Amino acid sequence: MAQAVVPAMQCQVGAVRARPAAAGAAGRVWGVRRTGRGTSGFRVMAVSTETTGVVTRMEQLLNMDTTPFTDKIIAEYIWVGGTGIDLRSKSRTISKPVEDPSELPKWNYDGSSTGQAPGEDSEVILYPQAIFKDPFRGGNNILVMCDTYTPAGEPIPTNKRNRAAQVFSDPKVVSQVPWFGIEQEYTLLQRDVNWPLGWPVGGYPGPQGPYYCAVGSDKSFGRDISDAHYKACLYAGINISGTNGEVMPGQWEYQVGPSVGIEAGDHIWISRYILERITEQAGVVLTLDPKPIQGDWNGAGCHTNYSTKSMREDGGFEVIKKAILNLSLRHDLHISAYGEGNERRLTGLHETASIDNFSWGVANRGCSIRVGRDTEAKGKGYLEDRRPASNMDPYVVTALLAETTILWEPTLEAEVLAAKKLALKFLENHAAFHSPVNILVEHHT
Ligand code: ADP
Ligand code: MN
Ligand code: MN
Ligand code: MN
Asked: What's the subunit arrangement here (predicted)?
């Protein structure tokens, strides 16, 4: 039966060749020729700039529905690599469609090639943890989020999911049903030159202002990528809740959530994987660097909106304030877990708070923690932690938020330490006015 597919495909290739006029310049999307025939949703992602029948034939195979011919499916096993931010994946055949990760076998990979194991004992074991529909292969094929273990069953150091799963299975945390809404910002770069999409190579666009949520070819760069990603995420079963163009041209955001507990981390990691795949096909480079361009250009963050059951119920604002107090006492710990290079972003400018100072406020985007007007008005709701960088690990950030606000109680030491820090800062800020020289200067001006 499978053989019948081949002549049918050849016929279609012939038909496309016979109509070269159908693909004018206007038919090109990212250098891909539109055939004018009914296209599948993801045809736009096809590779190569070639316009011969070879590409069309390849697309036929890539888009081929295998379900009438075999029960077997392809599972793409995905894991976080040795830098803690890179994603790796490889494929395997599974004998029939699955609905739950527990139906999938464990697998392994060469950890010495991902910076995760020594060469002489290189095997790392993949444990399937969450499954999603595969928007690239379609059908019953799946993407599988995995975490990583030694052959003896110990989580390896870059496995942050294991610890997060522990926090999120603690009965105290479970009973608080923690919700996370994560705003993932990212920047698109032109390949080879590593300069933002839409920016003149070797130069700069006009200053920030017209680009946020903008339309128009001189203001919005990469919308097709953002949109393809949006639909692919919906298809996959990711709890994506919106997208917007950002303040810096070439920068975008999407939101995932609210999601409960460990799901937030799984969904962000898979959404990043899908984004990497789409940008790969578009020939554009994705960066999650928190400050891709120095100077008067916004950085990229991963604001984490957070609430517990008691924050969402009447009287919740008091619970939110208590959570903010805990967060203030552990500011340094949180900053150390919120992403590499975040000090380049958290300058106190460009809608950020300084990395050294904890602050919070209602509707204030220059604070570490923002509480929305709505939450204040209703007396319940959620808080927004604006500190996490775009390259943060969502397993680390979500688990730490839950730990600090649900499991941790402020110790006397923590409070004394925080008070000391405040006192020191106060002295630093006011030292200038205490010096006689300055007092003199003040009198003369
Ligand atoms: P911003 O105004 O900061 O740009 P966004 O609209 O981009 O905010 O993102 C807000 C996020 O907060 C969304 O992902 C949304 O799902 C999430 N959210 C809404 N309510 C809650 C809640 N009670 N707890 C946690 N997250 C929430
Ligand atoms: Mn947002
Ligand atoms: Mn944003
Ligand atoms: Mn935000």
From this structure: Homooctamer.
